[in-house]
Every structure is written in structure tokens, then in C-alpha cells.
Amino acid sequence: MVVSPFIQNLGKLYGYVVPSDLQPRGGGGPDLTDITPSLREHCQQLCSANVRTVAVRGNACRSWDMLADCANCVSKGMRMRDGHQLRPYQEEALSLLRDSSDPSRLLSGNVRMPCGSGKTALALCVAMKAEAMTLVVTNSNMASANFAEQLQQIFTPPSRGVLVVDDTYTQRPGDLLRNRPGIVMCTYHTLTSDTATPFIRLLRALPYGLVILDEAQMSVADKFQRVFDIPACAIISFSATYYREDAKMDMLLNRVGPMLVNVSRQSIVAAGYIPDVQRVEVHVPRGRCASVVLQPHKMAVLMALIAQHARLGDKMITFCDELGDMDEICSTVQGATVHAAVRVELIGPLTMNTKHADRLAMLSAFRACAGPVVIFMSRVADTAINLPDANVLIQTSCHDKSRNRVVQRTGRIQRRSDGRHVAYEIVTQGSAEEANVVERRACMDEEGYSTSIVYPFAQGGGGQPAIATAEYWPYMAGRFP
Fold first, then answer.
1. What pLDDT digit, counting tens, does each position of 10-22 carry?
2. Which CATH superfamily is domain 5-264 in?
3. pTM across the whole model
4. Given the DSSP bridges, would you call strands 102-106 and 98-99 parallel, antiparallel or unpaired?
């Protein structure tokens, strides 16, 4: 068998050979029902060798020559389907991920691309080019499902197949040794858990041709850093937001590699690949209510925006940060739509308590809706939600200064390039939201977004764009006295 140069020279770097009882033979690997002592030792040697390599070689490209195991690392058969092709900036990004002196090798490093620009498709294309067993680490089961869905839509799967794993997965470790999948998809939480099953412990100990870290800002969290110890030829991280509110992002440069690709949002907006989302901050009085969210001014604005965009036939995403407020917001909007005869389909709420199958059903219902629709979601849906027809975003609160959150949420409506795309933040005056939104606005200014500030309840209107709250004010004032 001809071995790709991408997965050669394993022993030279790691100084390790697979124990003979774990080498492939006959019909596959040994029939293990649990992690045996020899396999445990194998895992420990790999992990310790990997740590030493990182310490000594820094950001050097990772490669190996585990000759007894290299056949299991080869993964072929993945091809892009007819009718699909990379965009020019994706092609350029792919070229930057290759070693210029040896195009058969991939470099380790980081890829920054705006939301909606095709990070998932590019990551899968990198896996296709690697022709090696690939581990894709995501931040949620929904993200893994999105990767699997896009792989099915855009590519023919690798001949070894695709395995999507969550913390309920019950396959035996021996099955994994006998039948290595071409691509494995697993969440950070499942892969790094201290209570991981024997199967998961084996999953993170096996060598890979490529490890892809999706939403890379998650990987440096204390509880997820174990992903950096997974032995791999190359580790490539992807994200639109290399931001954290702590100082840990430098760890990606130290443990993975340099920023290899940085795609400008303005450049692909100008080329017509993604829309130029217009941001609108709507500042409202606090009134007498203790809550900065469940108060009549904010709820009247929310309903006015939903009604206005429903008449335009738009597809809306409404975020609420506090689970305690979510049910009240949903019931309030439902009552107001009946009261004012607003024709719009309401879906949700989608929260951390929503079962995975129900989440997928809600997203499917949103995509299938032919008319105006609103889906209500909590912060669990900040990332990895693919709703390409959504064009209006409404954030009902601004409880923190998170740059990740505001960029990622805006990215939910940045999937198609035609028509209007508007992102609203409703801010209660005289509350912490005012200071938080200033920080968010500064971040979005750096990202190249323009922001309008509206005061719909100001005397005389101040010449600002109108938000017709009068029709809904009596209803909201009566509900939130």
C-alpha cells in the first residue's frame, strides 16, 4: 500500500511504535471490550510524547511515521460533489494551509473567517485534501450535526465513513480499532470529560492525520485544553471570533500555531458573498419595572419590530439571555400577535433544556416556513446554527460585554447576500445594558459594521427612524404595570 507522505515519519517525531498486540491483523484489530493495560500504556506513551514534542519543537509542523498503524490513518474517497466549488477566498485560504516547500503537507495554525463565509465547507475540504483520518471537535451536538449535514450536501463521504459521537455513544473500543472511520466528529465536552467512557478515552488517544478545532476560542478553556494533547500531523483551528474575555487566546498560538488565514469581512461583503448587516440599537426608558427586560417599553419595541418585519415577509431570530425571561417573552409575543392580528409563525423557545432532536426539529421548521417566522433562542444558539434564510436579528437584552456573543449572533443572519439584513439590540436606559452595549458597539466598529442608534420614546422623535410602538403600548403597559 502506498502511504501518503502526509502521514509518514511518525516514529521519528514521537519515537514510538504501536505495541504488537494492538497492530492490525487479519480481519482488523484485536477484539477489545475495554481499554486493556497495554492499550492504556500505549495511550500514555502517545500523550506524554506529544507533550514533550510540543515543549521542544514549539509550533513545528506535526508529522509521524507509525508504520505499524499508518494504513489505519489513510482515508480516501472523499470528493466534492458536482455543482459545488470553493469560492476564490476559500481557494486562497486552502493554499495558505499547505507547506509551500512541500504541498503534500498541511501546516498547523489558525483560520479566521467571518460568519457565513463557509468555514465549515473549507474545514471539510482540508480534511478531503489530507486523505487522513480526521477528528473534528465542535462546541455542541448541533454543530456536529451541521458538519455532518454539510459534508453530505457538498461532498461524497470518505470510504471509511463518518462517525458522529456524543456522550451517549455506546460503541466498544475494539470496534474503533477494527474499523477506523475517515472522519470523527465529537464535542469538546464529550472528548475531554473526566468521566469519559473507554471508547472516548481511546478516541482521544489514537493518532490522527488532522485535528480540526471548530469555534477555536472554546479550546483554550481550562476544561477543554486536553484536546491539545491529541497526537496529530496537523491541528487547524477555525473561528470567526478569536476573542475571549480572559487572556487565554495566546495559548492557541503556542499550542497550535500562527494565524495562517485571516479573511476580511469587508472584502467578501464587497464581492457580494455575504451581506452588509446594518446594526440598530434601540434605547428605551426603564420605567418603574425592576426588570430591564420584562418591561413595557422594551416589549412594545420587540412586538413592533416583529410586526413590522412580518409584514415584509422576513425571517427573524430573537435572542433572550435569561432562561427565566424566555417563557414570559414567548407568551407575551404570542398574546400580542393575537391581540393585534399579526400574521407570523412563532417557533421555540430553543434553550439549553431543549432536547437535541427537538432543536433540530425547530430549526427544520424555521427553514421550511414559507412566510414570516420568528424563532426564539437562548445563548445556547449563539454559534453553529445554520439558518441561511434568516435576515433579521433581535436581541432583547445586553447583559454582558461579550464580543464573541455580538459577533456570532450577528453572523446568524449573515448567510445569504440578497435583500435587507438588520440586527437590533434593545437596550434599557439607566441600566448596565448601556455600558455593555458601548463595548459591543466598539467591537462591531472594529469588525466594519455600521450602527444606528434609535430612541423611539424620545419627545419629538429626534428625527430618528420610526418604530411604531403606539399600537402595542397599551397591551404591554397592561401586562407589565
1. 333 333 333 333 3
2. P-loop containing nucleotide triphosphate hydrolases (3.40.50.300)
3. 0.81
4. antiparallel
